[in-house]
Design brief:
The protein is elongated, with a radius of gyration of 31 Å. A hairpin with a 2-residue loop joins β8 and β9. It contains 7 helices and 28 strands. By secondary structure, it is of the alpha/beta class. Helices cover 19% and strands 30% of the residues.
Length: 402
C-alpha cells in the first residue's frame, strides 16, 4: 500500500495542464485564471470624495470649531458621475456626494454633518471643524496603480476578484479549460433513484455526491448510466467514457472480489495501472491509471470511501489540470469537543462536524457505508494510526464544501 502523500505525488506528477480559453468576467466565477490580470488604469480613476459633504481648501478652515465656525460661500455642486467645471477658490466650497470627482482647487472634503446652512444667506454654509489636506478624499491610484497585477495566474476567481477585474474595465480574460469528467457507478445491485427496488437491490447515490464535488472544483461531470457487473459492460462503458472526456471516475468494482472488474476492463483497453491501494481508512482500494492520455480514478463503492478518496486524491488532480495554485482541500482550525482516537493501523479520516464556534466532534458512526453521519459531517479529521487526541486539542479539519 502506498502512503497517501506518495500516491498523491504520483498522480500530480503526470497530471496534464489543460489549455486556456476565453471567458467573460461575468461568467468566470470559480474558474481558474490562466494568465495574470494587469490593470490598464489607476483605481480610483481620479481623486474623489469618500462621503457626502463639501469640497474645501483646508487652509480656509484653520481654527474652525463649533463655537467659532467658519463661513464659506457655496458655489455649486457635483453629483457622482458629474464634474464641477469651475474651481474652489479661497472662501468657497462645492457640494459633493460619495464618489464625486474632487474639484480643482480643493484639497479636502468636510462631511455634511460638520456643517450647517446659514439661515440668512442660502448660498453660505458654516463649517464646525478643521480638516487636513487629503481628509475624506480617495486619491487617484491609491488602491491600484496602472500596470499593477490585479490577480495572479492560478487563482480560482472569487467574487471580490471579479469585482476588481470589472472595476478595472476588464471584460474578457483567459481561464483554464474545465476538465470534463465521466462519472460511472458499477454494480448489478444498483438501481437509479426513484425506480422501484426488487429484493437485494439498492438505490445508487455516489454519482450525485461526486458530481457535486466535481462542480465545486471546477470540473464538468458527465454522468453515465449504471454499469452492471460484467466484463463486457464495464469495458464498453469505460471505452465510451474515455473517448469523450479528460478523465474517468468510477465508483465500485475496484477491490478483489469476482465482480470487481474495473481494473481488468481498463487493462483490456490498453490502460496501465499506476497503483491501486492507499494506506488510508476509509478508501484503501483506490485505482489510478492512464490510457491514451486519459486518466482513470477508480473509487471504492462505499459512499464514505468514495468521498474520502475523491477529496484526498481526485480533487487535487482536477484542480491541477486547471493550473490552480492551490490544489489541496481547504482547511479550518478547530478545537475538539470530545476525545477521538484511531486504534487501527491506517490513517483514519474521520467524519466530523465543525460548529460555528469552531468546536469539532464526531459526526456519528464511522463505518464506510454510513450515509447518516456523512450527511451530518462537514469535514474530515486526519487521525494517525494508533493515536488518541484529547478533548480541547487544536486540530486541522479538511473541508469539502468550501
Amino acid at each position: 500500500m502506498l502512503r497517501l502523500e506518495e500516491a498523491l505525488q504520483r498522480i500530480l506528477s503526470v497530471t496534464p495542464l489543460l489549455g486556456p480559453e476565453a471567458a467573460t468576467v461575468r461568467e468566470a466565477a470559480g474558474r481558474v485564471l490562466a494568465n495574470p490580470a494587469i490593470s490598464s488604469v489607476d483605481l480610483p480613476l481620479f481623486d474623489n470624495s469618500a462621503m457626502d459633504g463639501f469640497a474645501v481648501r483646508a487652509a480656509d478652515l484653520a481654527g474652525a470649531n463649533a463655537d467659532h465656525p467658519v463661513a464659506l460661500l457655496w458655489i455649486g455642486k457635483a453629483a457622482a458621475g458629474e464634474v464641477f467645471k469651475g474651481a474652489v477658490q479661497a472662501g468657497t466650497c462645492v457640494r459633493l456626494f460619495t464618489g464625486s470627482p474632487l474639484p480643482n482647487g480643493a484639497d479636502a472634503v468636510v462631511m455634511q454633518e460638520e456643517t450647517r446652512p446659514d439661515s440668512s444667506q442660502p448660498n453660505r454654509f458654516w463649517f464646525l471643524d478643521t480638516v487636513k489636506p487629503g481628509d475624506n478624499v480617495r486619491r487617484q491610484g491609491e488602491d491600484i496603480q496602472k500596470g499593477a497585477k490585479l490577480v495572479e495566474a492560478g487563482s480560482r476567481l472569487n467574487s471580490g476578484q471579479l469585482a476588481l477585474l470589472a472595476a478595472a474595465g476588464i471584460q474578457k480574460i483567459q481561464v483554464a479549460r474545465q476538465p470534463r469528467v465521466a462519472l460511472l457507478a458499477t454494480g448489478s445491485e444498483l438501481v437509479e433513484s426513484g425506480q422501484p427496488l426488487s429484493p437485494g437491490k439498492i438505490h445508487e447515490s455516489n454519482r450525485v455526491m461526486l458530481a457535486s464535488l466535481m462542480k465545486r472544483v471546477g470540473a464538468i461531470p458527465e454522468i453515465f448510466p449504471l454499469v452492471p457487473d460484467s466484463l463486457e459492460a464495464t469495458q464498453a462503458a469505460l471505452e465510451e467514457a474515455m473517448a469523450g472526456c479528460d478523465a474517468v471516475v468510477t465508483s465500485g468494482g475496484v477491490s478483489v472480489g469476482e465482480c470487481d472488474l474495473v481494473k481488468t476492463a481498463f487493462e483490456k483497453l490498453g490502460g496501465k495501472l499506476a497503483f491501486w491501494k492507499v494506506a488510508i481508512k476509509p478508501g484503501k482500494p483506490f485505482v489510478f491509471g492512464s490510457a491514451g492520455g486519459k486518466f482513470l480514478f477508480g473509487l471504492p463503492g462505499n459512499p464514505v470511501s468514495a468521498l474520502v478518496t475523491f477529496v484526498l486524491l481526485v480533487r487535487p488532480a482536477l484542480a491541477a489540470m486547471q493550473g490552480a495554485t492551490e490544489v489541496s482541500p481547504p482547511k479550518s482550525t478547530g478545537v475538539l469537543a470530545e476525545p477521538l482516537s484511531n486504534p487501527g493501523e491506517r490513517r483514519h479520516f474521520m467524519r466530523v462536524l465543525v460548529d460555528d464556534a469552531g468546536r469539532v466532534r464526531s459526526a456519528g458512526a464511522q463505518s464506510s457505508h454510513s450515509l447518516s453521519s456523512l450527511a451530518k459531517a462537514n469535514g474530515l479529521l486526519d487521525i494517525p494510526p494508533r493515536a488518541a487526541l484529547p478533548a480541547h486539542a487544536t486540530v486541522s479539519v479538511l473541508r469539502w464544501d468550501w
